[in-house]
């Protein structure tokens, strides 16, 4: 059941909530690591009604990470080699996390009665990878997708699941931001990821890079993320 999924949940101040943002963290982080985001949105003064938004920051399970010598840490899927799309991939773990994200979306639509097209999903690094893939596999339309320092390690598996069908969210707005100095997920891998999702049929897709930014979400990118959210909610 979705209500059992561990997450930091920050409810809208103005009830009932009219929209929702679900941000999925990266490797080694937790939902708490993104719990500052609602304050950023409010302080940016870009959204017209920032207090009517539900926020969800899910916590990944603790699993051993092969590339880190089996060290147990929060992760949405195992990693065998950093930044190598041709390496062995944890396909079952990846899709299990997509299912978790789908359950969290349905929690917002079914429990809080928020229209699915007013739900934005997104994340950083592993969280971005999960969010992009989930958007391509959903059988209902959502509001938008945010991918910060994202990548796609299982292109063939996603294509196999789609079986030639165009994603229902093909016209859904997607914002993918990437640091040009990212040593972990290099800019070229980010670009390849954007081209892959466009090849699946995504047409409302923005890919933007940020000079001097490493494997992190810089201030300029975060401003663009808030503007993107405002464009969907307002």
What this model shows, in words?
This protein is an alpha/beta fold and 234 residues long. The protein has a single domain, classed as 3-Layer(aba) Sandwich (Rossmann fold), CATH 3.40.50.1820. It is 33% helix and 20% strand. The strands form two sheets. Strands 1-3-2-6-7-8-9 form a seven-stranded mixed beta sheet, with helices on both faces. Strands 4-5 form a two-stranded antiparallel ribbon. Helix 5 links the parallel strand 8 and strand 9 (205-210).
Radius of gyration: 16 Å
- The CATH class is identified as Alpha Beta
The CATH superfamily label reads: Alpha/Beta hydrolase fold, catalytic domain
Number of domains: 1
The structure class reads alpha/beta
Helix content: 25-40%
Low-pLDDT runs? none
Instruction: Give the averaged pLDDT, no decimals.
Output: 96
Strand residue percentage: 15-25%
**Multimeric state of these chains?**
single chain
What name does the CATH topology carry?
Answer: Rossmann fold
CATH architecture annotation name: 3-Layer(aba) Sandwich
Termini Cα gap: 31 Å
């Amino acid at each position: 059941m979705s209500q059992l999924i561990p997450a930091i949940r920050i409810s809208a101040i103005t009830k009932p909530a009219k929209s929702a943002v679900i941000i999925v963290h990266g490797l080694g982080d937790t939902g708490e690591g993104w719990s500052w985001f609602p304050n950023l949105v409010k302080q940016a003064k870009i959204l017209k009604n920032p207090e009517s938004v539900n926020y969800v920051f899910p916590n990944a399970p603790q699993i051993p990470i092969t590339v880190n010598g089996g060290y147990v840490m929060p992760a949405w899927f195992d990693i065998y080699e950093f930044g190598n799309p041709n390496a062995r991939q944890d396909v079952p773990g990846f899709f299990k996390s997509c299912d978790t994200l789908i359950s969290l979306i349905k929690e917002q639509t079914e429990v809080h009665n928020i229209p699915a097209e007013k739900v934005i999903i997104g994340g950083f690094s592993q969280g971005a990878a999960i969010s992009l893939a989930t958007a391509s596999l959903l059988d209902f339309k959502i509001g938008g997708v945010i991918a910060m320092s994202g990548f796609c390690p299982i292109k063939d598996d996603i294509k196999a699941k789609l079986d030639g069908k165009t994603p229902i969210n093909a016209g859904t707005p997607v914002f993918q931001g990437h640091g040009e100095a990212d040593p972990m997920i290099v800019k070229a891998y980010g670009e390849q990821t954007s081209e892959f999702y466009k090849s699946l049929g995504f047409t409302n897709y923005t890919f933007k890079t940020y000079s001097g930014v490493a494997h992190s979400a810089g201030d300029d990118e975060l401003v663009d993320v808030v503007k993107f959210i405002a464009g969907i909610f307002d």
